[in-house]
Amino acid sequence: MKKVLVTGGATGIGKACALLFEKEGYDVYITYNRTEPDYDVKKIKCDLKNTDEIKTLFDTEHGFDILVNNAGVSLIKMINDVTDSDYEAVTAVNERAVYFMCKYALKNMINKKSGAIVNISSMWGQCGASCETL
After folding, report:
1. Is pLDDT of 54 > 90?
2. What class does CATH assign to 3-125?
3. CA-CA distance, 104 to 107, in Å (whole number)?
4. Strands of the sheet with 116-119, listed across from one edge
C-alpha cells in the first residue's frame, strides 16, 4: 500500500486530498498544528514553523511515496504594518517548511527511485489582493 503525507490536512483542501487518497486505498498521514482533524486518518501534530519538528516527523515516520505540501498561512495587513516576526512566521510555513518537507521526503524517494511531491499554493500567488502582502 502506498503511503501519502498531506500537510495541513485537518480542513479544507488538505482534508479533501487526504479523503480522496484514502478512498483510493492509500495509507494516509496528515499533519496539523492547531486544528485537530475531525476524521479518522493517521494524524501527526507538527508545527511546520519548527524545522526540528519536521525532522522528527521524518525520523519517526518514513517511507512516504507521496508528499502533498498543502499547509499555508496568510497575513492580512498593509505591508507597512507587517512586522519582522509576522514575516518570519508566514515564510516559515509557506516557504521554509516546504523546502524541509521536500528535503526529508526525498531521501526515501531517491533511495526507492520513485515518489511524487505536489506543492499546492494559494490563488494569491497568481494575482494579489488588498492587504495580502505575504
Report:
1. yes
2. alpha beta
3. 6
4. 42-45, 27-32, 3-6, 66-69, 116-119
